[in-house]
Amino acid sequence: MTFTVEDYEKAIARIFLLKQDKEEHVIGTGFLIAPGYVLTCAHVVLQANNVNADNFTNSEYKKQPKTEIYLDFPVLASGQKINAKVVVWLPYNLENGDVAVLKLLTSHPQEAKPMPLVEVSRAEVENDKHSVYGFGKSSAGGRSDAYRPKANVAGGRFQLCKYGDPNDETIQPGFSGAPVWNDSRQCVIGMVATATVANDKEEKQNTAYAIPIRQLQTILKQVNAFCLHDILAQSLNRCGSNEKQDQFRKAIDKALLDCNPQGSGRTWQQQLVDLSIDRPPPTGWETEGRLVYFVMMLALINGRPTSALEELKAWVERCGHKYSDLFVRFNDEMKQKNFLASNECECLMVAVEQVETSTDELRVSLWAVPNRETYNADNPPMPLVPEKVLSRQELPVFVRELIREKLNPEPTPTIHLFVSRKLFGENFEMLSASPMLGAVLGSEYPFVVRTNPRTHPVGNHYKHEWHKKWKQLEEALEKKGGSEVKIIDCSQPPKNLISKIKGIYAARLKECNSVDELFDLIAEATALPVALWSRDPAFQKNLHRVLKCTVKELPERIRQEREKAYNSEKKPLLGHHLSLVWEDPKIVPPDMQFNSEMC
């Protein structure tokens, strides 16, 4: 997009001081750096608030001002005042501060385009001509066209001098905040921060000191994040229905989670600023940065409206990148990573390990599997939560909130909880998952227990038995559970017990006093993909009730029994004590893949 000196003038803002006599006085200059954002000097804002220059460095002015100020764009809409508030503040300092960013509270003229800002060294442009447009003695403004950088000064700023015209008085103190326009490059290379006016015979030239774009980069990145947040917020408000808003909100949450896993608990705007300033870019995206990477992620995710996509494209182009090329590149990368492009989830994998130094804390990781048939642990999606430490009581609350906030309600995900076998007897599915309602995971979602292979490494023999028996189970999925799930008396001698289990793929356990020891024993000789039992022996005789369904329907049937128990005033019931092991070899977390070297 070309940007001319005429565009430069149209993007100039005139900042006012409103005195008690109601007379308007132009106090300084600013310029449009992003849609809705104007850059100027901190001391211009202070002057607009009637602060005397002698007090600029007072401690009270170190804090960001809250008072609104007034400005207009005189070339396009002279006299049409726009209210603005300060959103970025570097307090007055002649060497490394004196910068303010203003957010416009109403729209600027449509023809005003954000100025292109380019980082250059003084040596690169010392022979180029530069223009500076600002407001000195005349409130109408004016432009000087023959300035050149003369020398670097303290703090990395550079001195601008007018050569060949020592009596020129164009640059006045009212030029503070003016953009320095490079004619040959057609861009802004800095902002005028201070100006001195010739007032005696020895000082023959007016001199301006400018802040180079290099020193403004952190602020500009922050403004980029603000601008992107505005796009997201405005697009969300335009979604119309609550359902569409919810889908877009979840898409944003998912993209942020994928790009900034440590951002939980921070606002969208805070996370976007984090991505722009504090988070290192992914490998291969060093030029574009993580904020652009986030936009490409959001563009790929289902659920974002078309209008938002068009604005995101424009944002990327304003950042100096070609959107179409980036999208092709990003899409190819995500295909290689098997990226989850929607919020649908058929299976939610929750991997749990005990924290070594605590008896109550658990180390938790989560992955969403949108489709069991297409899932490949060798090429997995990125985790919803790479790692988080939670107490046992916090775990169900965290999982429920994540499902409700991040995933679509349909299909209802089956929760696969991967734990150490010594935790098989725990009632995670019946612990309170909602402090307000007392809801439990087991009543809302099919919930199965799985062996955590990181705790119990899988050998080739077990793997062979496991896959063989699961294949047998798949052939019987449509058969009645009552006939396929065999009763196993766990009180018999180990040799007899293993002999019975070797010939079956699904069991209903009775007289099982130590579940973890039983499954350790089974793993020594064979595998048992599906096992059902009651944690309370008093309900063993009632297990047949939940088997009046097909094998395939068993997880959902048990959910119904748990829901019945949860809603009943009579306690305890069978549903309070049901445990189901469902060792589906297709659904295994990526860092728990089978490794023959473990054998």
UniProtKB/TrEMBL annotation:
Gene3D superfamilies: Trypsin-like serine proteases
GO biological process, one term: proteolysis
Xref: SUPFAM superfamilies: Trypsin-like serine proteases
Any coiled-coil regions, as ranges: none
Keyword Protease applies: yes
All residue ranges annotated as the vWA-MoxR associated protein C-terminal domain in the record: 361-585
Keyword list, A-Z: Hydrolase, Protease
Ranges of residues in domain vWA-MoxR associated protein middle region: 244-352
UniProt organism field: Nostoc flagelliforme CCNUN1
Pfam families tied to this protein: Trypsin_2 (PF13365), VMAP-C (PF20028), VMAP-M1 (PF19963)
The organism's place on the tree of life at top rank: Bacteria
This protein's name: Periplasmic serine protease, S1-C subfamily, containing C-terminal PDZ domain
Example GO molecular function: peptidase activity
